User: Fold these one by one.
Assistant:
Number 1:
Amino acid sequence: MKLDVNVLRYLSKEDFRVLTAVEMGMRNHEIVPCELIDRIARLKHGGTYKVLKNLLKHKLVHHDSSKYDGFRLTYLGYDFLAIKTLVNRGVFNGVGRQLGVGKESDIFEVIKEDGTVLAMKLHRLGRVSFRAVKAKRDYLRHRSSYNWLYLSRLAALKEFAFMKALEEHGFPVPQAVDCNRHCVIMSLVPGYPLVQVKELQNPDVVFETIIGAVTRFAEHGLIHCDFNEFNIMIDDDEKVTIIDFPQMVSVSHPNAQMYFDRDVECIYKFFAKRYNMSFEENENDCDGPDVEIDEVGRPQFSEINKNIGFLDKELAASGFTKKDQHELEKLIEGELEENSDSDGEEDEEDEEDINTTNVKQLESLHLEKQSLLLQEDDKHQVVDEHDDNDQVGDKEDDHEDKGEESESEDDAELEKSLSKERRKAIKAAHRGKRNFASRNTYKDKGGKSSQNSKVQKQLSGW
Ligand code: ADP
Ligand code: MG
């Protein structure tokens, strides 16, 4: 995927404000109604419309008017939000070439101010199998945050937490540097994935290191679950680094034995095929430089002394909770399933979920959000549509241009106004008002929302 970060330079404070508003709206809308974006962003004089047009031009948002007029973030839009946050935090200040394309990620070089090069992994969960994920309605049906943003973000958080914990336990993994949204920053691993390495000086040493790592993972209560030549990097000195952790599971997982055996089998098979290693017991090898390793030495899951608790204690402490783990595991299982749902059916269900939102759901969503906050500067808030009598938008004059330095003040203000919105929504729902209108029942009632309506009209022509 192309990541033209030059566009970043041309994006204004307002652009990011509206992009953030779309992101916030996506907490509970797959397509965020224009009216809601406008209300969250609170730009003056229909400014949201102009900004959305610009964001659309740069492919940071996608316009959808199939059911109602609205927008969703594109991967690129989400990338930009994460990149901007990390740049503001001083983690890096430039994006370089693409290092790899995984099945569910894009990896780029990023450059720090002092010239150090790091690796940035942008998770793309759902790129291949979002539909399959959606098929798991049993566990996702009462969530409004099932979308790819949430899933990619969960995968990134997990990867970051695991990488950090593994590194602290001396495993040969990249150094985990930072994480925001669906983006993980880690040290750059020198060398290449093993799959690209035709010959090794010491295949037996490399093999033993790799098999030793898989055994040690299990001793620490973990199974990699995607342990193969694509996720093992090797440098010119044949030093091994293991990457790619979003699918790791605990040794207490019901399928742990199968996952472990599969990981081990992958390595045995690859080394036998690529480096002509022979694992047959007592095999007499007369065909050249093959390395013999006894089948007897193959690690057995049942014989490993597992120290379960590592995951629960250390990973929970690092922000990735057991609940997160559970959800992601279900998701990974879901990916294996064929999806037979039609889009239409899914959308109808989604509509139903949102229309029946009540105070309880709203509050629990808020709590959930609290537990999902990855970083202090995340600005997700749970908001929903409001009735037409609210006062949002009346204070548009608060948003005079303030210059770059006041950006954080702006964010704080945005946070404040969103909290106010949420409180109002909860209060209104307590009073029994029909507060959470159907996404399809937007009507222009004039009056205070006339500005929003204007935006709505302009956008509906797209
Ligand atoms: P996926 O989960 O999509 O498979 P990976 O984490 O396996 O993603 O990364 C995909 C590719 O990106 C790897 O095969 C490797 O070539 C490259 N890569 C990933 N992480 C790093 C890193 N820290 N340093 C250098 N290259 C990396
Ligand atoms: Mg991989």
Number 2:
Amino acid sequence: MKRIVTRSGRPLRGELYLPGDKSISHRALIFNGMASGEAKVEGLLRAKDVEATADCLRALGVGIREDGDSVIVTGCGGRLTPPSEDLYCGNSGTTMRLMAGVLASQPFEAVLDGDKHLRERPMGRIMKPLSEMGASFQGREGGEVAPLLIRGGGLTAGEYRSPVASAQVKSALILATLGAGGGTLRFSEPHRSRDHTERMLAAMQIDLAWEDDVLVVPSAQVAQATDVCVPADISSAAFFLVAATITPGSDLVLRGVGVNPSRTGILDALDSMGADIAVINAREVSGEPIADLHVRASELSGTELSGGMIPRMIDEIPVLAVAASFARGVTKVSDAAELRVKESDRIATTVTGLKQMGVDAQESPDGLVVRGGAVTGGRVHAAGDHRIAMSFAVAGCAATGETVVEDAENVATSFPEFATCLEEAMNGS
Ligand code: S3P
């Protein structure tokens, strides 16, 4: 089992170019893979989750080949070929849910499977609406969990009110709608989830629009393959924003980070805690806002996070809880029950890890409460969850004693170079 060891005492300095955005990378492969024509993807995240998506698409007849640092995707024009084997999604919920949307529209049978963590995650949230559109599904535990057998084709799109704010649910339904024979998707959710799908598909000539809080997508559309330049992932940047904020003497610039407003909750949350982060050189690439983030160490105070803020920083809450441990006062996160069904139960794994590091932290059904104070370091188990592993490695940058994060091999799912980047920043001048 791979472990990460961190110790305090070295500020993070200099500048970093972090790897590509995971959400945008999956979408650049899937949407171009389903489109007509050929497109170049620059800055694609090279990590296990995105490789899983690429492997699934290749097994379905999509052309994906290396071209220097870029990748060329040759689309199937809306028609995939039946796979000869089960499609393996590894640890990646985005791969499984978006590919389920794609496969629901294809007139053949396919099986989606994943690792032991992914096999525990809820799939009813996509299977139910995709079944209502006309696809047929089987899964374990009444169709709730993978492996999933999908018999697609003959879909009709309609209205769907999602009970959860989820870009994966939204994207699965959009993909199924594009391959549906008739109808129009009218999709709504309790709070807006990340909108990379809408932005990228609009750039690919797909007709879709938000009418107030309803996303309207007509069926039977094939996208036009379009080059994508993937920005650095703000979810990966978050670890460095927090590490630099809590480590005295830090002064770090993160270049070319995606700052799509549906993802920048972490910037707003850290700002409300008193962090010193300047968003500079704002620009746009492939329809996505990007910027450089200049972060300096600073004192923090506690904050309260709830409501529409949560989907805007859903993957960053564990590392935000780490920041809260170093803050003056109490931080309270609520309306975040979705954290319980991520790569681990992140409310439980975050609170357990914080306690192991000497922090006063408590779970609530839909969130957590952290009282800032002494962070001693210690031995933490990441439960096979990449973001939990990286969050506690970050805590170790400013804890009083050594921090050992066990079970950290899944860092490779989203950010294989994490430890190298951290070391580089700690050696920076
Ligand atoms: C993602 C959406 C989010 C996020 C996940 C990536 C995506 O999940 O937590 O890491 O790329 O669409 P939900 O859609 O389940 O909220």
Number 3:
Amino acid sequence: MTTKTRTTSSNVRRVPDRRVPVPLEAEAPLDCPLCPRLVAYREANAAAHPDWFNAPVPSFGDDKARLLIVGLAPGVQGANRTGRPFTGDFAGDLLYGTLLEFGFARGTYQARPDDGLALTGAMITNAVRCVPPQNKPTPAEAKNCLGFLKARIGALPDLEIILALGRIAHDAVLSARGVKKSAATFAHGAEHDIGSGLRLFDSYHCSRYNTNTRRLTPEMFHSVFAEIRKRIDG
Ligand code: URA
């Protein structure tokens, strides 16, 4: 399991020409300053709900992950409250249920970070680590967070497959790997070679909206995981 990491400002190198922050760590510092709008939202949430996590949500899972699942961003009353990706979010019910069904988790998911659930051969992270207002990060915020994703991917020596949940996660993975968008178009069920032995799978995000409108059914989600399981088992 990944533990909370607090990095210092000395761990965040700035590229002088474009002033683009380049985080060197796979996890954002809990007081990450990179996105002013998200910092303001975090501080407002902390004032209103001091018992919530209210910080960049760290990745969760197995350091020996062969599968990395990349979500969008924490939900305000879900991962932002509990401090574990997708935990307490509507989307977590389908995601964690599916991970248990396909052997990527053991235990019981109870929508709280101390439910004892453990991921096996998998890790979950988010393209944007802080909760954004209305669940919508701006392109600049996604860009600010890219260095963490890049480092997260680089810190998993056994990684074979990345599953992007939705287009924003897909684009973030491509940017993190330096792959052109034109080389890998997002589509539910698509699979892309992104170099260095890594394959990117796409799924529609398992959000409440997508499942309620049946853009994504549990069967569609399961079939992506069935394919991933098959590949990993060789
Ligand atoms: N919760 C997360 O942590 N990420 C998402 O993308 C959605 C809900």
